[in-house]
Please model this.
Amino acid sequence: MSTKDKATVGEDQHGIESEDTETVGKPLLAAEKSRMTCRNVFVYYGEKMAIDNISLDIGKNEVLSMIGPSGCGKSTFLRCLNRMNDTIDICRVDGDIKLDNQDIYDQKLDVVPLRARVGMVFQKPNPFPKSIYDNIAYGPRIHGMVDSKTDTDEVVETSLKRAGLWEEVKDRLDAPGTGLSGGQQQRLCIARAIAVNPEVILMDEPCSALDPIATAKIEELIDELREEFTIAIVTHSMQQAARVSQRTAYFHMGKLIEVGKTNKIFTMPSHQLTEDYITGRFG
Amino acid sequence: MSSYWFGWRKAKVISGGDFQKLHSRLPYYGYMSALWSGLPALMILLLWLSFETTIVSSLVMSDLPPAYEGYSEQQKGLLLNDIKNLSEGRQTSGKKPELKILSDRYTQLKAIANMANIAVVLAIAIIGGVFASQKIKVETRARNNVEKIVKGLLIASSTIAIFTTIGIVLSVLFEAVRFFEKIPVVDFLFGLEWSPQTAIREDQVGSSGAFGIVPVLTGTLLISFIAMMVAVPIGLMSAIYLSEYAPKTFRSIAKPLLEVLAGVPTVVYGFFAALVVAPMIRDAGVTLGLDVSAESALAAGLVMGIMIIPFVSSLSDDVINAVPQAMRDGAYALGATRSETVRQVILPAALPGIVGGVLLAVSRAIGETMIVVMAAGLSANLTANPLEAVTTVTVQIVTLLVGDQEFDSAKTLAAFALGLTLFVVTLALNVLALYIVRKYREQYE
Ligand SMILES: Nc1ncnc2c1ncn2[C@@H]1O[C@H](COP(=O)(O)OP(=O)(O)O)[C@@H](O)[C@H]1O
Ligand SMILES: [Mg+2]
Model:
């Protein structure tokens, strides 16, 4: 466990610039507490390195928020966690990423069930051009989780309820999902993701296209979902990170600079770069 | 040209070197005076040219020698032709001395007219230029002036296009109406027999043929249907491959290649169908013990299908590419495989657009002539058997109008009625297609 040692040492030497390849804070968790573990992850787009040696754990039933300036690799890192980077031809991922101690980049592992276990919600709501009902039923159907109409009805209803959308749409399940408002669409996408019963939900700036009221609803929802799921959320809003997450990770130019309890990161950042970012000196 | 410089100079002078005082920038004053002198002169020139011949001719004809007094209109027309030919130095039928005099007079009048024309146009150009330069003052809004004129020109051009279309439609419509005076509409639309007999003389026996459009229309639909059976699956699948599976380099080569198919002249497809495909089908038919006629709907349909593959594939490819990446990401993130994503998410999302593209291709197939003329035959069989010879609306139009025809026989007029039918069908298809495509665009706004 040498990585862990170094990282813990890093905390004691906080703010030392020369050591900036090391992450300050506590990126790693005890084995029984963590859901996903990432060790020495590098990501390249062609020749260009986008993620530079990141080690980070995501704990069970926690919301981990990732912040950092644009282009620092937050989305790239998030997309490693459900192998969405596979869909980009020039993208190469190195390192060791495990979900419940199972290597997700294992040759033998099929990405289809993996993506059922690690769901994802995108920046722009992207409901399929199908009915609300079919949007939710799509995932369970392709994974063979439902056989009968009653099964499907049930999954659709519970998913919409868990996403807090049921009351608003229960009378028009046949209406196209694209006809909902932005905030409703995003909750539909969340419902779609939780319909396949994932363990982890990845969210990439899920509120950046929404108005404040819709945002508040989603944040509330994230807080509720934490009881059942592990959530990793990328956000540009530090207030949002502060409101919804227990741990916060600060990324800078492909490196993980600092990780820690959210309230500590925002009140007493240890690293100079983190402090500069959250006090608004750049970003 | 020169009036551009006049306007420019004038503006420069009156501004006294302080361009800030001018309302618009210098070149606009130039443009303004150029347009003022150029446009009216150009219009006069055009008017003049279109009326000159008529006026000169009527002048010549008005003082015909008494010898021609009793001539009918038609004879006079011929005479005038002779005169014109003579004055242009060409041979005429029977050289009469009076004609020589007349044609001299014609030449003379023409020369005068030309001079007058040049003089008038120049005068108007100058007047226009002077008028414009009078108008140029410090506060003249030359820019707005120029903009207005340019806008007018653009409107005029688009009006020409529109009026030409309307003109064509109307002329087809009128001729078709004349046809329907001879043949009742009901007979035309629901008649099951098509045999427009050759009627050289009006009193000839059997000059009124049968003008039932049904067999012809069936032929068109049969061939178009066969063509779509070829083009839609192949075009759609190649579009899916190109947009979802193919590596970028392959796509960049294959797409233009496929579009070359659309650039092959239809005559080439025609003889390919007639000389290669049709014999192949017949041979195959013989081995299978089927009776295949030398010209078959199948041959024409197959080749036409190949011809419209690029329409389908290119349009579908565009539509599929227009499906937002987010849609694919959404499906992949749920664990859908590539083919599931294509089938269940991308195709449904792109379907309206694809349907629109296919309808456009259908209307193209219906209007296609060359291939069918060469490969499908001329006999109007009412059949659904693709191995028989059939004929199509376009082919019949061609055969009706080829050769010497009397221009108001039912036979010739039938061509206009067919044309009108074709026009209505393709127009309806196009409107439907555009409507669907537009609907589809809105979905992703
Ligand atoms: N598909 C891609 N192809 C090439 N480079 C990419 C691609 N996606 C992201 N990058 C690059 O990777 C870096 C990290 O991007 P990203 O993860 O999107 O940052 P963030 O989400 O933090 O704004 C950026 O420099 C970006 O230019
Ligand atoms: Mg991003």
Q: What stands out?
A: The interface with chain B takes residues 82, 84, 87, 89, 111-116, 119-120, 122, 124, 126-130, 138-139, 142-143, 178, 189, 192-193, 196 of chain A (CB under 8 Å). The CA atoms of residues 61 and 228 of chain A lie 6 Å apart. DSSP finds eleven helices and eleven strands in chain A. Residues A 74-75, 204 surround magnesium ion (ligand 2) (CB under 6 Å).
